[in-house]
């Protein structure tokens, strides 16, 4: 009788192998063969789950959002909505191996999306979703009186996402990434607090 | 008598060819051979000017800073130091083919630097220099009373650079990049103006 394999779990293992390769060697080191070796499978087995390399990349990128959502679920919920937003942004910074790998992957995807229209499409969709969620969150924080309401929630959301991306990018090659945290916190607080 | 070639000019032509390849096909399409073809030279001629691919990349990256400096030189100087800073940041956004190519190149370099320690070193040096120049500029703007002085110039500089990077990144895959400009301007003004 054949061994029953959970299809979803196997897909996650394969995408996880892809993420490790990108974080270690860059996006150009990814091939069906290298991913199969990293996952301990045959090339044929990988192709059974992902018919094209692009399917595989798309699934792996979705996985990075999932990791962030998982951390969001377990986050310390004390303080007001601005404190919580600051903790969430800090969670996305490349301050340990796992988060560093995620930022490298997102960065490499963006660089490649710029020269591959089909990739640009799914990077854009991801950004748009994130902007919508962040706008909604800031709007609630405004209603609760935790964030200034004299500026549009969508403008504030765009700024918070840009700060998050920009600081994450800079930390990636910084010798002392954590030293940039106070500047990130100052920027977000200054931007979001009504004086 | 051999034709006299301006060595500096030839090096710039070769690096320009590399930038065009990265902007069009991504960093992984770069080889001594592809750069030689793009520049209309032999592989041997390219190697006469750049002994390693890394030398070539480093020079090409320096060239992107030079382009930004050239635009800075010709910028409209009206208004106060904050207006000028806003124009400079806007100049760095990928809103036409040339600037789009520069942002793609810097982005691709950063993605690769994350998995190549020797590249991280020169990306870091570039960031550090930019942070120093920006801090100096904001400090002057503070003395002139054009920018708030209740926050450290270095923290404000880190935030402006992060906003610039983050918005440039997002515009790269946005269907309507210019639509993000008002949010960028709001963020920088809100951050830098004393109310």
UniProtKB/TrEMBL annotation, chains A, B:
Name of the molecule in the record: Transcriptional regulator
rRNA-binding keyword on record: no
Keyword annotations from UniProtKB, A to Z: DNA-binding, Repressor, Transcription, Transcription regulation
The organism's place on the tree of life at top rank: Bacteria
Feature: DNA-binding region: 31-50
Organism in which the protein naturally occurs: Amycolatopsis orientalis (Nocardia orientalis)
PROSITE patterns: HTH_TETR_2
PANTHER family assigned: HTH-TYPE TRANSCRIPTIONAL REGULATOR PKSA, HTH-TYPE TRANSCRIPTIONAL REGULATOR RUTR
HTH tetR-type domain residues: 8-68
């Amino acid at each position: 009788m054949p061994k029953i394999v959970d299809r979803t779990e196997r897909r996650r293992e394969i995408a996880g192998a892809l993420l490790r390769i990108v974080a270690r060697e860059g996006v150009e080191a990814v091939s069906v063969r290298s991913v199969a070796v990293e996952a301990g499978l045959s090339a044929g087995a990988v192709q059974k789950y992902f018919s094209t390399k692009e399917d595989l990349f798309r699934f792996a990128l979705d996985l990075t959002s999932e990791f962030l959502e998982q951390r969001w679920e377990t986050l310390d919920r004390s303080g007001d909505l601005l404190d919580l937003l600051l903790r969430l942004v800090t969670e996305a910074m490349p301050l340990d191996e796992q988060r560093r790998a995620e930022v490298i992957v997102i960065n490499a995807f963006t660089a490649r999306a710029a020269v591959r229209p089909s990739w640009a499409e799914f990077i854009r969709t991801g950004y748009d979703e994130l902007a919508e969620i962040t706008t909604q969150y800031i709007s609630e924080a405004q209603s609760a009186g935790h964030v200034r309401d004299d500026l549009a929630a969508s403008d504030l959301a765009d700024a918070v996402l840009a700060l998050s991306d920009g600081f994450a990018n800079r930390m990636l090659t910084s010798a002392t990434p954590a030293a940039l945290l106070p500047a990130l916190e100052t920027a977000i607080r200054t931007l979001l607090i009504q004086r």
